[in-house]
């Protein structure tokens, strides 16, 4: 794997990690069309990570 491909892979992983952190930690259902679906789906994960949600 070349250095450019490695850099692209690392960038993709970091971006995916930030998106996941946003969805689990800060979303509060904003991206869900059905209200609090995303919040309820990620609720236990939020507690596991120590993020306050209520």
From TrEMBL:
Keywords: Membrane, Transmembrane, Transmembrane helix
Protein's name according to its UniProt entry: CbtB-domain containing protein
Segments crossing the lipid bilayer: 6-26
Lineage: superkingdom: Bacteria
Organism: Rhodococcus ruber BKS 20-38
Pfam family membership, one: CbtB
Entry keyword Transmembrane: yes
């Amino acid at each position: 794997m070349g250095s450019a491909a490695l850099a692209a892979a690392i960038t993709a992983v970091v971006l995916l990690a930030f998106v996941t952190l946003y969805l689990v930690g800060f979303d509060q259902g904003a991206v869900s069309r059905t209200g609090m679906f995303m919040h309820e789906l990620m609720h236990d994960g939020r507690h596991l990570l120590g993020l306050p949600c209520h």
